[in-house]
Structure formats: structure tokens, C-alpha cells
Amino acid sequence: MRIGIDVGGTHTDAVLMDGLTVVSSYKALTTRDVRRGIIEALDAVLSDAGVEPAAIEAVMIGTTHFTNAVIERKELMRPRLSVPVYPPVLGFHPWSTGLKT
To answer: What is the C-alpha to C-alpha distance for residues 88 and 99, in angstroms, rounded to an integer?
Structure first.
């Protein structure tokens, strides 16, 4: 089973799928606290379907918030720390930065 969540400027939508079958769906107004809205969406589709979190193989989240912030130049700060991704991608190794992993 997979969960897809789309956090838009107006609504947050979530869908729980088993293969190509929609098992549960959720739609609510997007909250200012995007994290809380995502958690509510996850809880809603799992609860509605009576599915345990362990049954979920993947969760995909899409949002326009980052793109909109960059385009509108709102609430942007200078980055203070870059965190490397593991496993290494395209030859970038976390240990080459001197950071402890």
C-alpha cells in the first residue's frame, strides 16, 4: 500500500492506494502549519481504512510551497547548514565533508 499527499496553497489531499485501487481519500483546507496538516492527512486515511502504519510501503508528498516561496521570495533565509544525503549520490560522500554521520 502507498500513500500520496499533495499540499497545495488551498487544500491538502491524501490518498491511500492498494495497487491501482483507492482505499481511502482525504481533503482538508491547508493549514499554516504544513507539518500538522500532513500528519492529519496521514492519520485520516489510515484510520478511515483501518490500516496499520506497518502496511504502508511508501509515502509520497508533493507541495508547491517551496516553489512559491522561491518565486515570491517570501520567508526565505540564508542556509546555515547543508546536510549530505545518504546513501551517497553522484559521487558525493558525507564523510568527505568532515561531518559525523
So the answer is: 14
Cis peptide before 87 (omega within 30 of 0): yes
- For residue 7, the Cα-to-chain-centroid distance in whole angstroms is 8
Q: Which structural domain, as residue segments, surrounds residue 54?
A: 2-76
pLDDT digits (tens, 9 = 90+) for 52-94: 999 999 999 888 766 666 666 666 566 555 555 555 445 444 4
Grid coordinates standing for 3? 500513500
Residue 67 domain flag? yes
86 belongs to a structural domain: no
- Indicate the residue type of 9: G
Whichever domain contains 30, its CATH number is 3.30.420.40
Does the model's pTM come out above 0.90?
no
Give the pLDDT score at 82: 54
- As a whole number of angstroms, the longest Cα–Cα distance in the chain is 46
